[in-house]
From TrEMBL:
Family: Belongs to the NPH3 family.
Biased composition (Polar residues): 516-527, 538-554, 596-614
Name of the protein described by the UniProt record: NPH3 domain-containing protein
Gene source species: Sorghum bicolor (Sorghum)
Keyword flag Kinase: no
Lineage of the organism: Eukaryota, Viridiplantae, Streptophyta, Embryophyta, Tracheophyta
CDD domains: BTB_POZ_NPY3-like
Pathway membership, UniProt: Protein modification; protein ubiquitination
UniProt entry keywords in alphabetical sequence: Ubl conjugation pathway
């Protein structure tokens, strides 16, 4: 803190109650200065010799035969006038960052110019501001904070502009050149406290972080903060990432803290709305300057505060461009107070839709030029890495929101179908979401389960997911059959690759992923749809046979069930002995999997076995098969 002392005579002010007066020792006081309830009993000569305004006021009061002058409108109030009066009497006056601006505005009000007397108060305060205050980081911030109560005087005096420029210039300097103290509002680094664990006896100059100034500016009010950040950006030497970090810190201090409680309790949120508007206005345009999680928090705040539709639209578009940088926890936004759901899915769906729009048209955009439609490359098209990341993100999000007992099935399906075209290495994430929803919603109907399970492709499940699905009692029987079948296909492929002379059947080859990876990107392949829609449903004994075959293949071909033993006995002797290990299947099951709907009654009985309350004999078989499924590992 910088100080300035003016004058040399001892202080002869004395306070009595709410009045401040001189204790005159030589001359009786001949003027009373009134500022509200406070009165100053002073002498005319010292004041009039330095203040042009008091000269006019005293002349006017003499004509009215009144020795009291009212200056209640003086900026800074009695304390600022006291500084000016002491200076007029030649007494010691101490100026610092907290009172210098009030004294400057009061001196301007009293018109204490150089034309009245050389070395007057205005000149000396200006020198102190320029040579001391504006050169100091802390003092510049303190002075800028004090301008709020002195408007419009400090604005007319250009003091605010000088403070802002001083702060912005220091914030824009290279961190290696920062030599002043800036830690009064920030936790010190270990090296700054002298407890650096890597200290080897040689004291090194601590490294100054690039965002050293971020926390200090959070003390400013919204309007001043906005002007400072605009000036920092205009200087062009501060990276966009640092600007983004400054906005994030300010948002947590002025906007996001206890926001939901404030809204629910009906607290006035005018200042929070102003902070949100300023932050959105100041967001850097550079991609990656702020995190996707921070943008999602701003979107949530905009919804809670009822901000304009333009704010939400702009945020949704920006979040859509960097959705691949979000985490599942970022998307778990609580709903509005009038909703029963655990999470606000309606807020996430337009973001996903925006991301998918960028993925459309193969990265090309069209515009009309001279009555012709011209197609150009869209540089913002989504990369394959981003697609994989978003697919994984939404799969994880679906698994979390599936735990909500109040989540409607159409919303879950709609969100999953939005990203159905995105590539996935496996469909394990979708399977986890489906399984979680089935667990939390046991009352789903047969058709609802069918729609839900249709989101995943059984061919794209990993071996661990297949193991879990085979023993999952919540899955429909039809899905279990598909999982078992494609596990056999996978075993057949592995066997064929180990024996180059073998050749896969055409049926098996048609189920394999294509070379261009299209089947990986689709959530449900044509083969899966055919299996579900057109095949008959095997009985429980058929499923047990498939399961036994699968276990036999996993154990290296050992015979662990009668089904697999019979298959090995009926297989060809020499030429097909190696193939039978992973490729053989009961003809009865294959015919049911690939034949048309020749037995409607069988389908009906299978579907009925999945519906609650059914008591037909097939249900007993299905239940037994599910028990067996759980016992097999």
């Amino acid at each position: 803190m910088k100080y300035m002392k003016l004058g040399s005579k001892p202080d002869v002010f004395q306070t009595e109650g709410s009045n401040i007066r001189f204790v005159a020792t030589e001359l009786a006081t001949d003027i009373v200065i009134s500022i509200g309830d406070v009165k100053f009993y002073l002498h005319k000569f010292p004041l009039l010799s330095k203040s042009s305004r008091l000269q006019r006021l005293v002349a006017s009061s003499n004509e009215e035969k009144n020795d009291e002058v009212d200056i209640s409108d003086i900026p800074g109030g009695p304390s600022a006038f006291e500084i000016c009066a002491k200076f007029c009497y030649g007494m010691i006056v101490t100026l610092n960052a907290y009172n210098v601006l009030a004294a400057r505005c009061a001196a301007e009000y009293l018109e204490m110019f150089e034309t009245i007397e050389k070395g007057n108060l205005i000149y000396k305060i200006d020198v102190f501001l320029t040579s001391s205050v504006f050169r100091t980081w802390k003092d510049s911030i303190i002075v800028l904070q004090s301008t709020k109560s002195l408007l419009p005087w400090c604005e007319n005096l250009k003091v605010i502009n000088h403070c802002i420029d001083s702060i912005a210039s220091k914030a824009s300097i290279d961190p290696s050149e920062v030599e002043w103290s800036y830690t009064y509002n920030r936790k010190k680094l270990p090296s700054e406290n002298g407890i650096d664990s890597h200290w080897n006896g040689v004291r090194k100059q601590p490294m100054v972080p690039s965002d050293w100034w971020v926390e200090d500016l959070c003390e400013l009010e919204v309007d001043l903060y906005k002007r400072v950040i605009m000036t920092v950006k205009a200087k062009g030497s501060t990276p966009a990432v640092v600007i983004g970090e400054a906005l994030r810190a300010y948002a947590y201090r002025r906007l996001l803290g206890s926001l939901e409680d404030a809204v629910s309790n009906g607290v006035d949120c005018t200042k929070r709305r102003a902070a949100l508007d300023a932050i959105l206005f100041l967001l850097p345009a550079e991609e990656g300057s702020v995190s996707c999680g921070f943008l999602l928090k701003l979107l949530r705040a905009a919804c809670l505060l009822g901000s304009g539709e333009s704010h939400r639209i702009n945020l949704i578009k920006r979040i859509g461009t960097q959705l691949d940088g979000a985490s599942v926890s970022d998307l778990l936004i609580p709903p509005n107070t009038d909703e029963n759901n655990t999470y606000n899915i309606d807020l996430i769906m337009p973001i996903v839709e925006e991301f998918m729009l960028q993925n459309s048209d193969s990265g090309k955009e069209k515009f009309q030029d001279d009555e012709e439609i011209v197609e150009i490359e869209n540089v913002t098209s989504v990369s394959s890495t981003s697609k994989l990341a978003v697919a994984k993100l939404i799969d994880g999000y679906l698994a979390e929101i599936a735990k909500d007992p109040n989540l409607p099935l159409p919303k879950l399906i709609a969100l999953a179908e939005m990203v159905s075209s995105l590539p996935r290495p496996t469909h394990d994430g979708l399977y986890r979401a489906i399984d979680m929803y089935l667990k939390e919603h046991p009352g789903l109907s047969k058709s609802e389960k069918k729609k839900l399970c249709g989101l995943m492709d059984c061919k794209q499940l990993s071996q661990d997911a297949c193991m879990h699905a085979v023993q999952n009692e919540r899955l429909p029987l039809r899905v279990v059959v598909q999982v078992l079948f494609f596990e056999q296909v996978r075993a057949s492929v592995a066997s064929a690759r180990s024996d180059p002379s073998s050749e896969l059947p055409s049926v098996v080859r048609s189920l394999l992923p294509r070379e261009n990876g299209n089947s990986i990107g689709s959530s449900r392949s044509a083969a899966t749809t055919t299996t579900e829609e057109e095949c008959g449903v095997p009985t429980s004994s058929d499923i047990n046979s498939l399961r036994s075959m699968r276990l036999a293949n996993n154990s290296g071909g050992s015979e662990r069930s009668s089904g697999s033993s019979d298959i090995n006995k009926n297989s060809d002797d020499k030429s097909t002995a190696g193939k039978a290990k992973g490729m053989l299947m009961p003809k009865k099951i294959l015919s049911k999997l690939w034949s048309g709907k020749t037995n409607a009654g069988e389908n009906s009985s299978s579907d009925t076995s999945e519906s609650p309350g059914s008591v037909n004999p097939e249900e007993v078989k299905s239940t037994q098969s599910r028990i067996t499924r759980r016992s097999v590992s």
